[in-house]
Q: What sequence folds into this?
């Protein structure tokens, strides 16, 4: 589908004054869904400077489907990687980095990871770009996602507004450099570690509920069933340093959701299994401490317990206005404007 036939005209970054963005999509055996992602991108009111789709040794028609879109959309590039047998999250990072290499020399402001099994509305990225434009401290942004059966990520989990799903995760370029990119963690958690590290380093991270996207494959189930995915999530929670009290709360909550008892039990079994094996943690001790502090603060808020003091992440502030601009403001107006400006420029305490 071409932009002309979609009924929605594209806008130019220069005319909209929005930040310039690029996207990378690692894709492995996504023939069932990648057409939906391609159609959604073809309809975007603000297309990216470049969208690199990395076919990570697919054995289905993923690459052939992408190739059909290339002639009408010159901003799409297909990169194909050599065959490999295993499927794990570290390989996804390697595929992402292969796409990132294709961005060399491009002048962009925002870098995004987009999964190949998603679909979304025509102004999805225009909306997110406007959020970055409005808040210079915003380092990572995204929206909630929905799945078949009525699941919605911001309603059916305790992730909170500060977590941004890796299925569609947008980074300010300076933030991406600050966190050092994605960690190649074979067992998963690459998106979580990126967004949590960004907060630890003082960036604002935000999931904006005014828009959503649809995730067509139940998250975490690629190559395995729902209970196996739940077990893997519990083990991942341990490896990423999740607090035992938070995990107990999470297990109890998930036992109240369908399939009753089984899902939460599988999560708890995965966490306990990883704990008994003392599986190594692929993230820093500093990130584990920060993560546990956030979890305990969230748990106290949920249980309405008094807050406790503790170390906070540094606060990142917006750049100060040029001296000439300040000099033009009359003293009375400057005094009236200062509190509001300061509130807008400083990130909210976590």
A:
């Amino acid at each position: 589908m071409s932009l002309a036939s979609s009924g929605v005209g594209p806008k130019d970054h220069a005319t909209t004054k929005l930040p310039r963005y690029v996207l990378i999509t690692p894709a492995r055996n996504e023939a069932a869904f990648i057409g939906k992602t391609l159609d959604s991108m073809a309809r975007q009111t603000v297309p990216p400077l470049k969208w690199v789709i990395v076919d990570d040794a697919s054995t289905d028609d993923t690459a052939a489907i992408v190739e059909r879109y290339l002639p009408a959309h010159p901003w799409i590039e297909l990169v194909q990687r050599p065959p490999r047998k295993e499927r794990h999250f570290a390989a996804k990072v390697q595929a992402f980095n292969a796409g990132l290499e294709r961005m060399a020399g491009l002048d962009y402001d925002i870098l995004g990871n987009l999964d190949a099994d998603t679909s979304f509305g025509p102004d999805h990225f225009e909306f997110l770009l406007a959020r970055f434009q409005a808040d210079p401290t915003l380092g990572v942004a995204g929206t909630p996602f929905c799945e078949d059966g009525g699941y919605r990520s911001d309603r059916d989990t305790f992730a909170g507004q500060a977590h941004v799903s890796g299925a569609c995760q947008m980074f300010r370029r300076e933030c991406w450099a600050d966190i050092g990119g994605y960690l190649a963690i074979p067992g998963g958690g690459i998106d979580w570690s990126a967004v949590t590290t960004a907060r630890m380093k003082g960036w604002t991270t935000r999931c904006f509920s005014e828009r959503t996207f649809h995730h067509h494959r139940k998250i975490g189930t690629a190559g395995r069933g729902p209970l196996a995915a739940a077990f893997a999530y519990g083990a991942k929670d341990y490896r990423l340093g999740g607090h035992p009290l938070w995990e107990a709360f999470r297990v109890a909550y998930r036992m109240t959701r369908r399939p009753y008892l089984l899902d939460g039990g599988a999560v708890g079994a995965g966490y306990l299994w990883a704990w008994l094996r003392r599986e190594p943690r692929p993230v820093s001790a500093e990130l584990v401490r920060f993560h546990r502090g956030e979890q305990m603060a969230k748990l106290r808020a949920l249980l309405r317990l008094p807050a406790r003091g503790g170390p906070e992440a540094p606060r990142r502030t917006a750049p100060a206005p040029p001296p000439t601009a300040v000099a033009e403001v009359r003293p009375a107006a400057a005094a009236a404007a200062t509190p509001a400006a300061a509130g807008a420029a400083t990130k909210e305490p976590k």
About this structure: The chain has a mean pLDDT of 86. DSSP finds 14 helices and eleven strands in the chain. The chain has two domains: 14-215, 226-302.
